[in-house]
Amino acid sequence: MNIGNLKSNDEGIHIGRIVTLTFAATVALREVVSNNDRAPAFDVMALSADRRSWVKIGALWQYSSSESGEVFLSGRIDDPSLEKPIDIACFQQDDGSYNVAWRRPQRKRTLPTASAGDDGLPPMPPVGSDDTPPLGGNDPSGDGLGESTAPAPKKGAKAKEHVDA
Fold it and tell me: Of 141 and 32, which is predicted with more confidence?
């Protein structure tokens, strides 16, 4: 979903607005100059509430689509007024401007479950078969606690109270 547009101004800086239901800011992209291959391509700067200074609220890295080869920017913006950071992507338009779209984080994918024989293990025997011990060890009550190796308490003995000094 598109949440903003950044256009190049006279100095060549991309500047515009990002607006959601709970967040609205004038933002600009500041190029990052670094020898580090892992450094972002741009810092996302927001105009402060008093409109006197710029505050860094995020960063964008440059990627290219493996399918189309299209170059785009991807990153995250964050602000104390936000419940969570917003993942964004910026797509350059024909006129040189960027459309800013928010991205919902992908849920972790679950691993496929293995069916019998897929992992080379024998099938699990059914509960109660002769080959498996009953649940709870040898305890016929079946409470799952097993047998106790502790001596039975003496009749009439009171439990000692432990007091920390």
Answer: 32
